[in-house]
Design brief:
With 168 residues, the chain is an alpha+beta fold. The chain has 2 domains: 3-113, Thrombin, subunit H, CATH 2.40.10.220; 117-167, no CATH class. It is built from 3 helices and 11 strands. It has helices spanning 3-8, 141-149, 154-167; strands at 12-22, 29-36, 40-45, 54-58, 74-87, 90-103, 112-113, 115-117, 124-126, 131-133, 137-139. The strands form 3 sheets. It has a 6-stranded antiparallel β-barrel with strand order 1-2-3-6-5-4. The protein has a two-stranded antiparallel sheet with strand order 8-9. A hairpin with a 6-residue loop joins strand 8 and strand 9 (124-126). The protein is globular and about 50 Å long. Bound molecules: zinc ion. Zinc ion binds at residues 118, 120-121, 123, 139-140, 142-143.
């Protein structure tokens, strides 16, 4: 297994109707889930969503072919990016989410935290403890403090370059 598939688990394409809402207004919009992995989703929506917004997703028709979605109906996460794309049904907004929670009940009452793998030591770490550097590199608390303690210089940039090479 290479570093990329370790990080993203299996990522599969799909085309499923979902509803999402920004956590603050709970107004659900219809959209289409195009891609899902254990830690992220890509969906297309008629409405733009501000990056960094927290959103909740309800999957009305769980599909056994998408990992996790046959099991889970509720997801929570944060929008990482949103941009105009040409989707299957015309111009729309494509949004990438980093998932933080999932649950089997559509109301999310039973939702639990999703673990992410540390890009340095590969330890599964609950996503609320994961630290992000350089926007893309996810580190567990001990790797993060190790890296933060390194003085700026060649060694530190070499480690960061190595991690970037693993995750890009
Ligand atoms: Zn680590």
């Amino acid at each position: 297994m290479d570093a990329v598939s370790q990080r993203h688990f299996s990522r599969s394409d799909c085309c499923l109707p979902i509803k999402f809402a920004r956590s603050e207004d709970r107004h659900y919009c219809e959209s289409t889930l195009c891609n899902i992995s254990r830690t992220g989703m890509y969906f297309e929506s008629a409405e733009a969503v501000r990056p960094q917004s927290n959103v909740q997703i309800i999957m009305p028709e769980p599909s056994p072919s998408a990992p996790g979605s046959g099991e889970y109906q509720y997801y929570a996460g944060q929008i990482m990016w949103c941009r105009r794309v040409q989707g299957k049904s015309g111009a729309c907004f494509g949004c990438g989410i980093r998932l933080s929670k999932c649950g089997q009940q559509a109301d999310g009452e039973d939702a639990h935290l999703i673990c992410q793998l540390c890009d340095m030591c590969n330890e599964a770490t609950p996503c609320d403890e994961i630290e992000t550097i350089d926007c893309h590199i996810y580190l567990c608390p001990s790797c993060f403090s190790y890296l933060s303690a390194l003085p700026d210089g060649q060694l530190k940039s070499a480690v960061i370059r190595f991690l970037q090479g693993n995750v890009v």
